[in-house]
Amino acid sequence: MKTFSLLFTALWLSSVVGAVCAESKVVLVIHGGAASDRAKLTPEMDKRYRAGLEEAVKAGYEVFKKGGSGLDMVETSIRRMEDNPDFNAGKGAVFTSAGRNELDASIMEGRNLKAGAVAGVTVVKNPISAARAVMEKSKHVLLAGAGANAFAKGVGLQIVDPSYFRTKERWAEHKELLEEEKKKPGTTGAGLSVPSTGEWSTVGAVALDGSGNLAAGTSTGGMAGKRWGRVGDSPIIGAGTYADNEACGISATGHGEFFIRYAVAHDIVALMKYKGLTVQAAADEVVNKKLKTAGGSGGVIALDRQGRVAAAYNSEGLFRAHITESGQVTVKLFQE
Predict the structure, then answer these.
(1) Handedness of CA 175, 159, 155, 218 (dihedral sign)
(2) Which pTM value belongs to this model?
(3) Is 202 a catalytic residue?
């Protein structure tokens, strides 16, 4: 009788632990950028950003439930955020110093380390889809400017007039930046002079599909007031995006020049593969130690092959959401 009781208890504990593990296994994590000025976020904006993140992560989860790939999940979630003018990607992107919208995006899969990216596109409605097309329909990894625009049109992606990306809110911010730069000679095109909602709105996603494959992607309008032709970390594989089934998937947001110089996304993967760090420990080591010491601000979202999610940021906040295998959604903007 005692043996039976012990066996029953062991089986019960096993089922409970299994249920907890299944419940906590994350299959998709997304971000809407790093935030450096919480005071600028009004209650109405807070509500909109939370709703936008939840809608995007649920859209990617629907793909998961239908057996879609990690690439499908990432592309779907990011397209939703590119179409949402609250985020600095696609419609609602920030302006360059020349008053243009120049968009960057990248995507990568962790099984074979295939990747694609576009930089400085101006007429592609959904840059993340152009990045995936570069990966799957060309022999290249990164296409830029007019060549990337022409490629996207050639493979049948939706092309729009550049005015599609413009919003009244972003244009007002752009004019404010120009006025601030007039007060500081020599700073034109140097980057963000005054806090902008665009500062926290780059988007990204990392997915773990039903086959155990990781995928990651990032899309952005870049830094508000950037010099035209400037390319940040978002389309740079190893800086703003990386995915490796042996470790994790990463999507970054922040001051791109630092993320490029410190190869942030790849460094996190390397720390996991070669030093055996957990995904959270590796992300913290790079973002809150190496990057912060160097003066770089921003953050990352990450997801490992066991479905363990991580977020690391040295900015005031990181807009993010994740969803578990069972469909449980968590949305956070700051330390909550």
Answers:
(1) positive
(2) 0.90
(3) yes
For residue 6, count other CB atoms closer than 10 A to its CB: 10
Supply the range of the domain harboring residue 289.
27-332
pLDDT tens track for 257-268:
999 999 999 999
Long-range contacts (CB closer than 8 Å, 24 or more residues apart) made by 72-77 = 72/209, 73/27, 73/28, 73/205, 73/207, 73/209, 73/215, 74/107, 74/128, 74/205, 74/206, 74/207, 74/215, 74/216, 74/217, 75/107, 75/128, 75/129, 75/132, 75/217, 77/28, 77/30, 77/205, 77/207
Domain membership of residue 17 (yes or no) is no
Which residue has 């990463």 as its token pair? 250
As a whole number of angstroms, the distance between CA 7 and CA 35 comes to 51
The residue with tokens 């993140």 is: 53
Q: Where residue 130 sits, what CATH number does that domain have?
A: 3.60.20.30
- Strand order of the sheet with strand 115-121? 142-144, 115-121, 103-109, 214-220, 203-208, 26-35, 317-324, 329-332
What does each C-alpha distance from 112 to 109, 115, 213, 230, 242 come to in angstroms?
Answer: 7, 9, 10, 30, 12
Catalytic residue (choose from 202, 218, 220, 241): 202
Residue among 204, 315, 176 at smallest CA distance from 255: 315
Residue 59 lies in a domain: yes
In this prediction, residues 129-155 reach a mean pLDDT of 98
DSSP state, 20? H
Is there a contact between 96 and 216 (Cβ–Cβ < 8 Å)? no
12 domain residue, yes or no: no
Domain count, the chain: 1
